[in-house]
């Protein structure tokens, strides 16, 4: 299986980069993993709804350019379905069993994802009703994907 994480923005904090690198290394035992960063658009403090949509649309176009036709797309979305770690493990396992060897998890910028990206998504996943910084979400996602593979393989870790 090939897993891509397509994310808006760069990670600046060293401690988050270190965590991301650690989980990428751990996950690489189970599948091919890559992170694709697309530039984020600067959003002023007092932004209008129209400007917000324009920014999400620009970021969305950059995201969509990095999604191949044969890719199963999972959008991280507050309105998506919440899964337990065990359910996420089963979800990933079932993607592989159904022949989906290319999977992309998409993390939007601070304003979220464009309608076009959400429409392209095959599944919308919500980690929590709480809001997390999108940089930290990358690390949380990687940890859960790693946990999912450990569960799938019956290996200790997730308790």
TrEMBL record:
It catalyses: pseudouridine(1915) in 23S rRNA + S-adenosyl-L-methionine = N(3)-methylpseudouridine(1915) in 23S rRNA + S-adenosyl-L-homocysteine + H(+). It is found in: Cytoplasm. Its EC number is 2.1.1.177. It is an enzyme of class 2 (transferase). GO terms for molecular function: rRNA (pseudouridine-N3-)-methyltransferase activity. S-adenosyl-L-methionine binds at residues 76, 108, 127-132. Specifically methylates the pseudouridine at position 1915 (m3Psi1915) in 23S rRNA. Homodimer. Belongs to the RNA methyltransferase RlmH family. This is Ribosomal RNA large subunit methyltransferase H. It comes from Fervidicella metallireducens AeB. The lineage of its organism: Bacteria, Bacillati, Bacillota, Clostridia, Eubacteriales. The gene is rlmH.
């Amino acid at each position: 299986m090939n897993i891509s994480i397509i994310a808006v923005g760069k990670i600046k904090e060293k401690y988050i980069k270190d965590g991301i690198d650690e989980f990428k290394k751990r996950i690489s035992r189970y599948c091919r993993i890559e992170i694709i960063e697309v530039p984020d658009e600067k959003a002023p403090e007092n932004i209008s709804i129209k400007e917000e949509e324009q920014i999400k649309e620009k970021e969305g176009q950059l995201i969509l350019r990095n999604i191949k036709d044969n890719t199963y797309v999972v959008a991280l979305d507050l309105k998506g379905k919440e899964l337990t770690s065990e359910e996420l493990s089963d979800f990933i396992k079932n993607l592989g069993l159904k022949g989906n060897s290319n999977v992309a998890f998409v993390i939007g910028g601070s304003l979220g994802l464009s309608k076009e990206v959400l429409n392209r998504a095959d599944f919308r996943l919500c980690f929590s009703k709480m809001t997390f910084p999108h940089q930290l979400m990358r690390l949380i996602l990687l940890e859960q994907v790693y946990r999912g593979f450990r569960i799938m393989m019956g290996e200790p870790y997730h308790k």
